[in-house]
Amino acid sequence: MISRVALKIREGATFGIVKVYFKDVSLRWADNSDFPRVFELIKELAEFERAPLEVTVSVKTLQADHAAGHFVCILAESASQGILGMALCHRRYSTWKGLTGHLEDLIVQEKYRGQGIGRRLLEASIQWAESIGAQRLHWEVLDWNQPAIDFYEGVGAQVLRDWYPCRLTAADMAAFPFTYPRFIASAS
Fold this sequence. Notes:
Number of domains: 1
Strand order of the largest sheet: 3-4-5-6-7
CATH class: Alpha Beta
CATH architecture: 3-Layer(aba) Sandwich
Order of helices and strands: EEEHHEEEHEHH
């Protein structure tokens, strides 16, 4: 059965008609056997974000890191269509707030977007953050991804436009020109 629902995000902003195709979508925790499909979703996201060559993680690494407890992965699955999306979360720490959660990626396969699956995954991520005692849930969104920005603002998230994410890659860290003697011995 296809139903039509008008989605109102905030006063004055509407997105018209949303088709809801699946009643059989459920959420579950990922297990070791799911990571080949999770990896496909990660690659799909990298293509969407115009950075396909940035993906260097492997299925084996995902499996090992998941088994080590480095992250949790929530899957949206349809009995008829398989895994449609995922949310990958991990812990982080704020010197101002204490324990916080980080939503690394929320991915819904493109042809299933606009059907409430992303909202369900976001809600599950919020519930996970609450379950670990997190004082907030943090994530990033690309400045050109206006549909995602609208979605996040529409559910009440603060999109921080006055903070810039900073990063050093593994190669950057290996080549970093340390001024002082190492505090921690090199892993290599």
